[in-house]
Structures are given as structure tokens and as C-alpha cells.
Amino acid sequence: MDIRTIARLANVSIATVSRTINRVPTVNPKIAKRVWEVIEELDYFPNTQARALVSGRSWILGLIVSEITNPFFPELIQGFEDIAVEHGYEILVSSTNHDPKRMSHCIRRMLERKVDGVAVMTFGIEAPLLDQLAQRKVPLVFIDVGPDGPGINVLKVDYHHGIRQGVQHLAALGHRNIAFVRGPEGLHSAESRLDAFLVSLRECGIAPNPAWILSGDHTLEGGMAAMQQLLGEKNMPTAVMCSNDMTAIGVLHTMYRAGLRVPDDLSVIGFDNIHIAEVTIPPLTTVQMSRFDLAKAAVTALRACAEGTEKSAQKHEYNIQTDLVVRESTGFPRGAMKDLPKKVRAKK
Question: Where in this chain does the record put each HTH lacI-type domain (predicted)?
């Protein structure tokens, strides 16, 4: 069975079947629907290798992530694949684990498969590796920063908006002693989140305490170690913001092991709003950065370049919004209720 059979049964030309399978937007929707109905009825599977030879395209989009074990990335991959498949693409996923050698291997895999575009959702990609893609005119998408040039797109995340909401939320509850567990040094997104936190503190009239800016690495273990360090301090903060949700979950676990309660003894805010944040104990207040929005913007940008709808050779930017999601891990500072008049406490 081939497209000639499909064309005969659908009463269309072979060219129309080909354009339909390749999802060319100029095909009449009613005709395309009729062709797909015949394809499904006959359980026909197009030869993707032949399709690539004819079209000169692989219909594959590459996605490079830092680490597959962080729940943020599987959720991003799922959204990326859902949107890509909807538009007739397959995806090729590679994980670097922050290893330059693995990054080189990832790039090689992408080039061997002749992908139509690559979304680089990681950091530390070296210039020579980037040149390998750029020289072959492979469309690229980066988060936050990317080089200038044709086919380069950048997803600009507004870290400040969501983090400002988080700091204002804590300040409104009465917190003035607020710590921050940062992400890996040198990671642009982590540095941006720390900068947004410091700026937001000053906007609320709160002076940051350098002793409460703690090192982290965006892992569960990093959050646990940072919280253990805080517990050893003479002066404890009343709240802590974390550069990502995995760090915040590590903080929650260490508090539990120490026999302390969140938010009674410490309010905690994360960043990312991964799915598991809804079911931690207590449910985690966090800053939402939509994986769906990231995935949709990445696929949209790569399709625009691969399908020739993007005419300009300039770098293009797509804005990604962040917003606070309030749950149960934030509350009044410890002891705050003692300072209220007795009548007010009685009413509560």
C-alpha cells in the first residue's frame, strides 16, 4: 500500500496526499480530513525516511535538557512532544548532566539525525559546539541568553515578576528576616532569580542579610544541606525562598527531620511549580514558570524557522511570564500572634 492507493480512495491527487501527510497548511481542511480518514481506515503508516528524502527535512525537533531526573524537565519534555506531534514532528531528547563531553555527544546526535531545529534548555554549551549547529544553519532556541545570528531564538523568562510577588507576599505576612537558597553559580537563570530576590527585598524596604544567602545546586540534597546550615545559625530567618522547587522540597524535608513545622517555624517558597509541589506536606507556595508556555514558544520558534515563515535574520525573543501560586507553606512569622491584642486573638 502506498500514497497512490490513498489518493485513489480519497479521490484526490497524489500531490494532495503528500501535502496532507506533510501538513502543508495550504491544503483545504475538508480535503485533508478526508485523506486522514482514509489513512486511519487503512491503518497506513507513511515512510518517514522517504518523506525526509522528498521534502529535504527530517521532521524531527531536538531538545537538549540539563538533567532528566529533575521533575521540571520531564514535564517540559511532555509539553514539547505534545505540541511537536500535533504539528507533525517527532522529537529527539538528549540530557547533558552538565557534562561537556555529553553535550558534545548530544550535538552530534542532533546533526546525525539532521534535525530541523534544536531547543537548548540547558547551560554551558561551548562556542565550538554551537558553531557546529550554526554552520549547518540549524534553527536554535535558548532560555534567557543566546548568541546573535539567523535562526537564533531566545525565551526570555520574567523572573522578577513572580519573585517580587513572593517577597511581597512574605512582607505582607510580616516577614522581615528572609533567606534565599540560590542555584548553581554561573547558571544564568539561577543568577537572575537571586538578583530578582535582592531587588525585591529592597523594594519592600528590607535589607538583605549576606549570611542568609545560601549556596545551592537546584537539587533535593542541595536544599537539605542549605537548611541544615541555617539550623546551625544563631539567628534564624522566619522565611526562606528557594531558587527552585526541588531545593524547597529539600528544605521541607530537613525541617521535618528536625522536628520543626512549616509554616509555623519557617515559611518556605519555591520556584517552578512542578506537579509534585501540590502534594508536598504542606503543599508548597511557589512561583509558577509554565513548562507548557516554554514548550509552546520553543516549538513555535523552531517551526517558524524550519518552515520558512520567519523572514528576518535577527534574533527573536519570546516572553515567558512568572506568577506566585500561594499554598500552605507560607504563614505569619513565628510568634507573630503573641504580639496581637488579646481581643483580636480571641476573635481568631
Answer: 1-55
